[in-house]
Design goal:
Blueprint lengths: L1 H17 L38 H10 L7 H56 L9 H12 L5 H18 L11 E6 L5 H11 L6 E6 H22 L8 H4 L5 H18 L3 H10 L10 E6 L6 H16 L3 E6 L13 H14 E6 L19 E2 L4 H18 L4 E6 L5 E8 L2 E5 H5 L5 H10 L2 E7 L7 H16 L3 E6 L51 H4 L3 H16 L3 H10 L1 H12 L11
Parallel strand pairs: 1-4, 1-5, 2-3, 3-4, 6-11, 9-10, 10-11
Antiparallel strand pairs: 7-8, 8-9
Helix pairs in contact: 1-13, 2-3, 3-5, 3-6, 3-9, 7-10, 10-11, 11-12, 15-16, 16-18
């Protein structure tokens, strides 16, 4: 084992370490702010080189097969063909949506001008008729007026006025422009390792430069962003209710007395409350279109791992996806389950059925692959895991430390401690940081109350992560194991290079003991993210990781489908992260690193001694 590991490192460590010189952190389309001293975030499509973006998914897939990097699969080729057809249709749809948004913008501007004109006319009538001048009215008039107001249900008057005004606007401005019919999206589902996310990402990369408004989300990231947007929407609503709000600035210059202006502000607030009644609709509108950006054009949402793990997920996904699909967004998504099987617990059934209806109407469902796990069929060429060091012996630890020294030396930076921002105003301390390379021990990342938001922040700010002293998972450390799987998910989704020092091999890492199941469905809910991803070792034809016999022990007695899926996904990802194909993808994602590497190689002033640990 150890001699083979030495040979693997000798052959590959120089290549993979020099390819990832000084860090430029992994982007997401809505990146977190960088911490002081950390490199600026890249804006680059996941897993797509400049050349690759010129080709469609089918060409990319066939190229990888012809190069021997993927094993041909008829299901995958069929999906690539369908995605290719969708891409071609989107070119026309983008132009249609640009024209539609131009007409819609003119209609909205005209309607708003007319709406304000109607409000001003009503205000003039009220001021001319002296509606607010109570001093001129007799006692009997006031009493009758009070009784009339008392017989009217609160809010009904404003609602009637609002509807009458909207009807007048329909007559004055005409009906809203009709949007073009959106092409049907694609909902991919299938087993671990079937290539769902790989194909989705090929499609996503090919849309760069073609579609203006495009996002790629993973389930964890989407849920966190929904929470964040909800907070922003509530905060903005509170600000908009203030009389000093910019939404009411046009009223301040009008030649009316205070009572009339108060009435105008009340009408504006009522319109806002009516249009913003459902917070998820407002959140959905922020998902794809930056308020500062040009809103014209088509929109694409690539959603990796649709799932309904709890009531909030059911309600949030239904509200967000229904709104986006209703406004013409094209959805390409992955899941380990068919849509009708997502909510087997029956949570919020009516809401879920509405979501199913929207998905059926707007997406074609495609099963990717079969139950076959291609990972076990991968041939071996004698190479072993080059970034996964085990067991925890002094010799292996020395090799792990040598790789840390080698990679940090070549970055040309100093090892420092920094703090990076996390969502919701939190911050996370990084004990050892060096130009996009970070180092942790297992307990620091998984033995404390941290979660997906922290791991996403790490993955966005660092391209290479070192984690030491990873134990074999057992029932005693179930919570730590759950966090570790979530960590692996995010590092994988953000195309980070992972270097591990662990107590056991990858296939034995989640075997546990006879103390009971490592996972149970209820406790695993909050991070039951499924599959995920791009060129899984299941579909790799390149044999640089040795196949192992099927795991036994604890795995054999696990009965829940979700927890079985969780550790199978983690094992699959950890092994794929050692392959050259994955590392090549890391280099493409961090495209500027190679340019920086060549600059460093030509510079005689950059070399320095190995930094201290």
């Amino acid at each position: 084992m150890i001699p083979r590991l030495h040979r693997a490192i000798a052959r590959r460590s120089l290549l993979t370490s020099t390819a990832l010189l000084p860090a430029v952190a992994r982007h997401r389309d809505a990146p977190l702010p960088s911490a002081p001293g950390l490199p600026r975030l890249l804006h680059h499509a996941p897993g797509a080189s400049d050349q690759a973006r010129k080709s469609g998914p089918l060409t990319l897939y066939r190229d990888l097969v012809s190069q021997g990097k993927l094993q041909h699969d008829i299901y995958q080729e069929n999906v690539a063909t369908r995605l290719d057809n969708l891409l071609r249709r989107l070119e026309q749809y983008e132009m249609e949506m640009e024209d539609y948004h131009a007409r819609l913008s003119m209609w909205e501007n005209t309607r708003e001008k007319q709406r304000r004109r109607l409000l001003v006319q009503e205000a003039e009538d009220k001021q001319r008729d002296g509606v607010w001048i109570d001093e001129k009215r007799g006692f009997l008039d006031k009493l009758v007026s009070r009784k009339r107001r008392g017989n009217i249900e609160p809010g009904v008057g404003k609602w009637v006025s609002y509807l009458n005004r909207e009807k007048k606007l329909d007559t004055l401005v005409g009906q809203k422009p009709v949007a073009p019919i959106a092409p049907k999206g694609i909902y991919l589902y299938g087993n671990v390792g079937s290539g769902k996310t790989m194909l989705m990402d090929m499609f996503y990369g090919a849309t760069e430069g073609l579609i203006k408004h495009r996002r790629r989300f993973h389930f964890h990231e989407a849920m966190l962003e929904i929470h964040d947007h909800m907070h922003d929407v509530w905060k903005r609503r509170d600000e908009d209710k203030s009389i000093e709000s910019s939404a009411f600035s046009w009223i301040s210059s009008l030649p009316f007395d205070g009572k009339i202006k108060e009435w105008l502000i009340g009408e504006e607030k009522y319109k806002q409350n009516t249009q913003q009644k459902h917070i998820l609709l407002a959140v959905a509108d922020k998902f794809l279109v930056d308020r500062q950006a040009n809103k014209s054009g088509a929109s694409i949402l690539c959603f990796d791992e649709i799932q309904t793990i709890d009531v909030f997920a059911v309600v949030a996904l239904s509200g967000i996806l229904s709104r986006l699909l209703s406004t013409g967004t094209v959805l390409v998504s992955t899941s380990n389950k068919a849509p009708e099987d997502l909510n087997q617990d029956g949570m919020q059934r009516e809401i879920f059925l509405d979501l199913l209806s929207k998905l059926d109407e707007n997406c074609n469902k495609i099963l990717v692959g079969t139950e076959t796990d291609y990972r076990r069929l991968i041939p071996t060429d004698g190479l072993t895991q080059i970034h996964y060091f085990w067991p925890l012996t002094s010799d292996i630890r020395s090799m792990y430390e040598a790789m840390w020294h080698d990679i940090t030396r070549q970055t040309g930076g100093n090892i420092i401690s920094v703090t990076i921002p996390v969502m919701f105003g939190r911050y996370l301390e990084i004990p050892k940081s060096c130009n996009g390379v970070a180092r942790f021990d297992f307990e620091y990342l998984c033995g404390r109350p941290v979660g997906a938001a922290d791991y996403i922040a790490i993955a966005r700010n660092y391209h290479t992560i070192f984690i030491s002293d990873i134990p074999a998972m057992s029932m005693k450390i179930r919570d730590k194991a759950r966090r570790f799987i979530t960590l692996i998910d995010e590092l994988y989704n953000h195309h980070c290079r992972l270097v591990c020092l662990a107590a056991s091999s990858i296939d034995d890492l989640f075997q546990g003991t006879d103390e009971g199941p490592l996972f149970d469905l209820e406790s695993f809910q909050f991070e039951g993210e499924a599959e995920g991803a791009k060129l899984r070792r299941d579909v790799l034809a390149e044999g640089n990781v040795g196949a192992a016999p099927s795991p036994t022990g604890l795995v054999a007695i696990l009965s829940g489908q979700e927890e079985m899926f969780a550790f199978r996904r983690a094992i699959s990802r950890l092994i794929e992260m050692q392959t050259s194909l994955y590392l090549e993808r890391v280099e493409r994602v961090h495209s500027s690193l190679q340019q920086q590497s060549s600059v460093l190689a030509k510079s005689s002033t950059v070399s320095q001694s190995a930094p201290s640990v």
